[in-house]
Design brief:
Helices cover about 55% and strands about 15% of the residues. Strands 1, 2, 3, 4, 5, 6, 7, 8, 9, 10, 11, 12 and 13 form a 13-stranded mixed β-sheet that branches. It is of the alpha+beta class. The protein is globular, with a radius of gyration of 38 Å. A hairpin with an 8-residue loop joins β20 and β21. α10 packs parallel to α22 and α16 packs antiparallel against α20.
């Protein structure tokens, strides 16, 4: 539609509005007169007067309704006109619009990607009924503050029997099972669970049923429930699988149910395997009373309605005190702690994700500040246009509404592109994330995430349009229309642009400081000496079924035969077995006494980790022998009551004396005979590189002949190239024995620092983006200021000013902005770095090296960003500048 048509259409609309207002006013006047007359006559008015008043009132209501409809239509018409005008401006200023949209897409996309993961881990409800009342129940030890320990079965039974704060309690523990007879033998991550676990969690089966109470008794628990994934993968989704008998670790089990794909049971942080279970079997509780013993279970409970966590914690503390009186030797020093399941599943990723949300929020703020500066500059360039429109009769509210609509259109385009960026970024984020980041949850870029993207897009649009709208509202048309007059929006917006630039620098410095602290922490963590050599070491686990290797020594013979054959493979330097290599999972520990020394009181017993090894273990891992000797071949196959201890154990429990020859009674074997210390080896960081080495006792396999052991093979080159050969050797000895957890020790070491690497990498990435955006923002502010002062520079140079003087004027403005921004950023960084304390390793939150380096780097880049427009200012030709003005 041409401009003349639009003009007459507008005039017609204004005329209609005026006529409507006059009609409404006249009808309301007549209605008031009729009401006044009726009141004067005090009820004696004829009926027709009342009818006339009613008709008049009806006319008023009808006119008001017509007015509402007309206002709605006019408002929508104005809005669509603003959108059309905004789209035309975007097309006209394609370069400017592309920069704005891409900058917003970067900030919104990064925010959406991080929110998608945080939503799955921290915010999204769990797929369980009454999930807010689900609690993990852990044991705690007073000697190890904050340490969550697994639960003793005897403790669990006592808690379940005596509490009144839980509707139900259930126990579980990991116990991998070998599945045979269904294709290739395979070790399946499994959980032994209480029979009520599924009803407690509110999970129903897809096929069949859950466990009955009768199946939770020893020797009657040979039934199994399959996960949806295992059912599809190994049984082809056979609907008749219920009732089928399968072989699990050599024992027949009847399939009684299949869980749906959405019913993913959680893997708590206390899980030994860290892998989601693919099948469940009931715990076979003995019919007799369970005596206190080892701690290896996890417990989950559902609070009764109306019971708070504090009330439940108080009663559980009382129950533990009662139990301690019954079994003081076993329970003294132990306590209980309730943790909401949702918090438990977030685990150690809660703090890193909160930090990432803060970091990406800063990036979004910096992107908005950058775009706001661009919008202010664009608004200043349109100052004369706005003045003309106001002079022709456009209302200031209409101008403000149009400015906000234009910014919302740009923000909507940035949000749409940002959502696409988030789809890619989300995949990249998950590929970098540690294993088992999400527990029972999955990341879905669904309606929740779309609502978040829409919300922050609208918010960004309102923020970006606020400053130009405010400038348009205060604009002076006569001043803007004056020939040769400078843009008043440019003049008024100068301070606002400087404030945005200062904010960008300050926020960028905070992000850079946080990234610097995390990166320094990560590099120090990687430089830690673990106490062993992880390079070129292949590991794999195998679990011998107890039904097949039931006779004494059969398992030891199997592992010795396997080691002899593996050592003959080409490229193998050494091979060994152990129950658990460093950094590969949870450890086993127990109390002990030293023969000849007083027995420590209950609750203050000596404590040590226990590891089962083969004589060549220390040489294979490169753990140095400090004193004495390691085990002989005879001690590996026959019990000789010998033990090797770690350096920390020797230092803590045998200060100022030689431990060699001393004897220990370790509370783990059925017959706690005294074991003689024959050697001392170097310390090893078993739990993690950021942990302190603890006391460790090493037993030869004959002292505790476990069926589940890990094979470690040191090779000359690529360890994974040897996997096929080792599998072949194991198959020759036992064709039905599956191998699992096949990985290199270097990979396990990388996984042990995955959380720190994840945090440092992503915060560093966001800090780099903020760094670039801040530099671009400062450059934009200074460059625009130079363009506005072209005439001034021309006059100065015409009057004899040197190029250096002009350059200094420009640099001074930029350096003032940088100095204020860096000062504010340092103060903010010192305050916010406190939130990183729990993520840092041997680095202070106030590390001066980090803050000085970050401030220097940001100052240098800001100086470079200012130098480019400063150099351009020195090239101004005085005559050209004055002629243009």
């Amino acid at each position: 539609m041409n401009s003349a048509g639009k003009f007459w259409r507008r005039m017609k609309m204004l005329f209609q509005r005026g006529r409507f207002e006059r009609e409404l006013g006249e009808e309301m006047r007549l209605h008031r007169e009729m009401r006044e007359r009726e009141e004067r006559e005090a009820g004696s008015a004829p009926d027709e007067a009342r009818y006339a008043a009613a008709r008049r009132f009806g006319n008023v209501l009808e006119l008001r309704e017509r007015g509402r409809d007309m206002w709605k239509w006019n408002w929508l018409e104005d809005f669509f006109q603003d959108v059309q005008y905004g789209l035309r401006l975007i097309r006209k200023n394609a370069g400017f619009s592309a920069i704005v949209v891409m900058t917003l897409a970067l900030g919104i996309g990064a925010s959406t990607a991080v929110f998608g993961v945080a939503d799955a881990v921290l915010l999204r409800p769990l797929p369980y009924g009454n999930e807010k009342r689900l609690m993990m129940v852990w044991e705690t030890n007073a000697a190890r503050s904050g340490y969550h320990n697994v639960v003793s079965p005897a403790n669990f039974q006592f808690w379940k029997k005596n509490n009144t704060v839980f509707d139900e309690m259930a126990g579980m523990y990991d116990q991998n099972r070998s599945l045979t007879g269904e294709g290739e033998p395979e070790q399946i991550p499994a959980q032994s669970v209480s029979t009520n676990i599924f009803t407690l969690l509110g999970v129903s089966p897809l096929l069949g049923r859950t466990f009955s109470a009768e199946e939770g008794v020893a020797n009657q628990n040979h039934v199994v429930i399959l996960s949806y994934g295992l059912w599809k993968r190994k049984f082809g989704g056979d609907a008749n699988v219920v009732g089928k008998t399968i072989q699990l670790s050599g024992v027949p089990h009847v399939v009684v149910g299949v869980m749906p794909a959405t019913a993913r049971l959680f893997v708590p942080t206390g899980s030994q395997t860290g892998a989601p279970p693919q099948l469940w079997v009931p715990i076979g509780w003995p019919t007799t009373t369970i005596r206190p013993g080892g701690r290896f279970m996890m417990a989950v409970a559902r609070l009764r309605s109306g019971v708070s966590i504090a009330e439940a914690q108080g009663q559980m503390d009382s129950i533990v005190r009662e139990y301690t009186k019954l079994f003081p030797d076993f329970e003294t020093g132990w306590g209980v702690r309730l943790v909401p399941v949702h918090k438990e599943l977030a685990g150690t990723m809660r703090s890193p994700l909160v930090v990432l949300l803060g970091a990406v929020g800063f990036v979004l703020l910096i992107a908005c500040a950058n775009v706001a500066n661009l919008m202010l500059s664009q608004s200043a360039a349109r100052d004369r246009e706005i003045a003309v429109r106001i002079a022709l009769g456009a209302g200031r509210g209409r101008i403000v509404r149009q400015a906000l609509t234009e910014s919302l259109v740009l923000a909507a385009m940035g949000g749409a592109l940002g959502y696409l960026v988030a789809l890619w970024g989300n995949s990249a984020l998950l590929s970098l994330a540690p294993k088992n980041l999400l527990g029972a949850q999955e990341v879905h870029m669904d309606f929740r995430v779309l609502i978040f993207t829409t919300a922050i897009s609208i918010l960004c649009g309102l923020i970006l349009g606020a400053a130009p709208a405010y400038g348009a509202r205060r604009s002076a048309p006569m001043e803007a229309l004056r020939e040769g007059g400078r843009s008043l929006v440019a003049i008024r917006g100068k301070s606002l642009r400087n404030i945005f630039a200062v904010g960008e620098i300050a926020l960028s410095l905070i992000l850079l400081a946080g990234a610097g602290l995390l990166i320094r922490s990560f590099t120090r963590l990687l430089s830690v000496e673990p106490g062993f050599n992880p390079s070129n070491l292949l590991m794999m686990r195998m679990t011998l079924p107890a039904t097949k290797y039931s006779q004494t020594g059969q398992n030891i013979q199997f592992f010795q035969q396997m080691l002899e054959r593996v050592r003959t493979l080409p490229g193998v330097r050494s091979a060994t077995i152990t129950n658990s290599f460093p950094l590969t999972g949870t450890t086993s520990g127990t109390s002990f006494d030293i023969v000849g020394k007083p027995i420590a009181p209950a609750g203050a017993r000596n404590f040590t980790e226990v590891q089962i090894v083969e004589p060549d273990y220390f040489r294979t891992l490169g753990i140095p022998l400090l004193r004495g000797r390691t085990f002989s071949a005879e001690e590996e196959t026959a019990m000789r009551h010998v033990v090797v201890i770690s350096e920390t154990m020797a230092r803590e429990y045998f200060p100022n004396e030689d431990p060699i020859g001393k004897k220990l009674i370790i509370d783990m074997k059925e017959q706690n005979d005294a074991d003689e210390i024959v050697g001392i080896v170097g310390d090893v960081k078993r739990a993690g590189l950021d942990s302190s080495p603890g006391a460790i006792c090493y037993w030869p396999h004959a002292e505790l002949p476990l069926n589940s052991m890990m094979l470690g093979v040191r090779v000359e080159s690529d360890p994974m190239a040897l996997v096929g050969s080792v599998r072949g050797i194991v198959a020759q000895i036992d064709k039905d024995l599956p191998i699992f957890e096949v990985e290199t020790l270097e990979h396990w070491m990388g996984d042990s620092v995955a959380r720190q690497r994840f945090s440092a990498l992503l915060v560093g990435l966001f800090a780099g983006i903020a760094f670039v955006l801040a530099a671009v923002g400062v450059y934009g502010v200074i460059a625009y200021a130079v363009s506005q002062r072209t005439r001034e520079f021309g006059v100065r140079m015409a009057l004899g000013a040197e190029a250096g003087d002009v350059a200094w004027l420009v640099l001074k403005s930029g350096l003032q902005i940088a100095a204020i921004g860096i000062s504010l950023g340092l103060l903010g960084g010192l305050g916010i770095s406190q939130f990183l304390r729990g993520l840092l390793f041997h680095v202070s939150p106030y590390d001066p090296v980090t803050f000085v380096c970050v401030a220097a780097a940001l100052g240098s880049v800001t100086l470079v960003a200012c130098w480019v427009p400063a150099r351009r200012a020195t090239k101004v030709d005085p005559m050209v500048a004055l002629r243009q003005e």
